């Protein structure tokens, strides 16, 4: 592209930008007290000048030069007034530090093919309803720089603008990009103790609250996300997070929890065992019987929902007089129940049947309120079959190396975004890093 064409494009973009700032300025003046006061002050000054007419006062006699300049000034006055007003409106619509932010983006090469940087059109603050997060949203006219490029250059942008980017979103179709940011000095806390108050919005919507990201609370709605696969290196915090989720299920009256723990149930002490809605399974035979029951129940629910023409359990429970319970089946280390190494032929057959039942639940459980929460250090193919894994859409990964992150999330992000000594820090499949709530199941839970 030659220089002349580049200049023409630049001028056109600048014209569009000025028009946009002007429109924003008009809106800002009506909504922002400070800007409105500046405008009123300006108009009062103009009014005062037009009443006093200082150029007339300075007129001292029939000097021809004086008379010409006086006429010229009084002719120019309206233009000066409107010019000043336009500048004031542009000032009101221009986000602070817009120029320096754009220069910084230019420095890291965030430009379109014509060499133009995205243009900052708005800066606003968003407070989340919990007190841990306060976002500044930077809104840009993308100027043809797609979201994928912003994501690729995320680390560069963070350094150039000295911020953490919690999220990048498109708006106005694909024309605008919004960066959800917090200052670079803000970080997720290393410890977030659980409080029962966090449950306030969960019932009866079947929502679980997992922890907090820089964007605010991270929740999981069982109506939308039926199954969860939790992976991560040893000591990353999987057991604590799984127990946090199960504890919340048990606090809701309509969820039945069953936990398979082949280590003799040592990980789940008396609060779990004594809870009327919680059942522990300690051996393979019982597990198989239980899973047979659950799959049978699944078929029964299919018939019931079909007969009353309800789409799923959510629809059924909202309209029918007697609601169905949700059923959650959880395993803390799935390799314990699915690893076939060293087993006899008969045991291998049992494991194959367990796998088969889990696969049915993973495929069909959502509509019928039957959920799987599976946790494991390493869900590779010889432990968790593709059929089960592919049907668990919601994956959460704790600290992990490249290979483990790829096995769990199908990308290496957990290894890049989670420090190698982090505890209770997780990454979801949609790219959200969060600190899970710390929860101690040796204390009173229910
Ligand atoms: N949410 C959290 N916040 C802070 N620290 C945590 C959190 N979760 C876990 N930890 C710390 O990490 C330690 C290990 O947690 P946990 O037993 O859940 O890990 P794990 O991933 O289940 O390990 P393994 O795979 O060996 O069973 C805990 O004892 C605790 O000190
Ligand atoms: Mg564990």
From TrEMBL:
TM annotation in the entry:
36-55, 67-92
Q: Which InterPro entries match?
A: FtsK/SpoIIIE/SftA, FtsK_dom, P-loop_NTPase
Protein's name according to its UniProt entry? DUF87 domain-containing protein
Q: Where is the FtsK domain?
A: 215-407
From which source organism is this entry?
Agathobaculum faecis
Task: Output the CDD domains linked to this UniProt entry.
Answer: TrwB_TraG_TraD_VirD4
A cellular component term, taken from the record's GO annotations:
membrane
Q: Which GO terms describe its molecular function?
A: ATP binding; DNA binding
């Amino acid at each position: 592209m030659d220089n002349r064409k580049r200049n023409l494009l630049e001028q056109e973009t600048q014209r569009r930008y000025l028009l946009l700032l002007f429109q924003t300025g008009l809106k800002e003046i009506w909504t922002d007290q400070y800007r409105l006061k500046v405008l009123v002050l300006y108009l009062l000054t103009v009014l005062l000048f037009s009443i006093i007419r200082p150029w007339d006062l300075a007129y001292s006699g029939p000097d021809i030069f004086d008379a010409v300049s006086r006429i010229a000034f009084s002719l120019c006055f309206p233009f000066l007034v409107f010019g000043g007003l336009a500048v004031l409106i542009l000032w009101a619509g221009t986000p602070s530090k817009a120029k320096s932010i754009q220069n910084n983006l230019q420095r890291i090469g965030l430009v379109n093919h014509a060499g133009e940087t995205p243009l900052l059109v708005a800066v606003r603050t968003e407070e989340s309803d919990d007190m841990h997060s306060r976002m500044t949203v930077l809104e840009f006219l993308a100027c043809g720089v797609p979201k994928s490029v912003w994501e690729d250059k995320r680390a560069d942008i963070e350094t150039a603008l000295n911020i953490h980017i919690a999220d990048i979103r498109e708006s106005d179709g694909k024309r605008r990009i919004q960066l959800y940011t917090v200052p670079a000095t803000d970080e997720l806390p290393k410890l977030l103790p659980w409080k029962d108050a966090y449950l306030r919005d969960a019932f009866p919507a079947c929502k679980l609250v997992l922890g907090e990201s820089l964007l605010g609370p991270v929740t999981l709605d069982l109506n939308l996300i039926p199954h969860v696969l939790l992976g991560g290196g040893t000591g990353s915090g999987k057991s604590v997070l799984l127990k946090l989720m199960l504890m919340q299920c048990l606090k809701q009256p309509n969820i039945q929890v069953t936990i398979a723990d082949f280590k003799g149930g040592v990980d789940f002490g008396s609060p779990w065992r004594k809870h009327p809605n919680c059942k522990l399974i300690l051996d393979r035979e019982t597990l198989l019987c239980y899973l047979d029951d659950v799959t049978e129940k699944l078929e029964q629910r299919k018939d019931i929902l079909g007969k009353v023409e309800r789409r799923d359990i959510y629809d059924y429970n909202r309209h029918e007089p007697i609601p169905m319970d949700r059923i959650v089946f959880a395993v803390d280390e799935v390799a314990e129940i699915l690893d076939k190494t060293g087993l006899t032929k008969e045991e291998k057959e049992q494991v194959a049947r367990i796998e088969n039942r889990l696969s049915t639940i993973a495929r069909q459980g959502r509509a019928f309120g039957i959920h799987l929460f599976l946790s494991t250090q390493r869900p590779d193919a010889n432990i968790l079959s593709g059929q089960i894994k592919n049907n668990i859409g919601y994956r959460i990964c704790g600290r992990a190396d490249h290979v483990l992150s790829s096995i769990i999330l199908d990308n290496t992000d957990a290894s890049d975004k989670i420090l190698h000594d982090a505890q209770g820090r997780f990454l979801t499949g949609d790219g959200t890093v969060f600190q899970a709530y710390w929860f101690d199941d040796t204390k009173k839970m229910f």
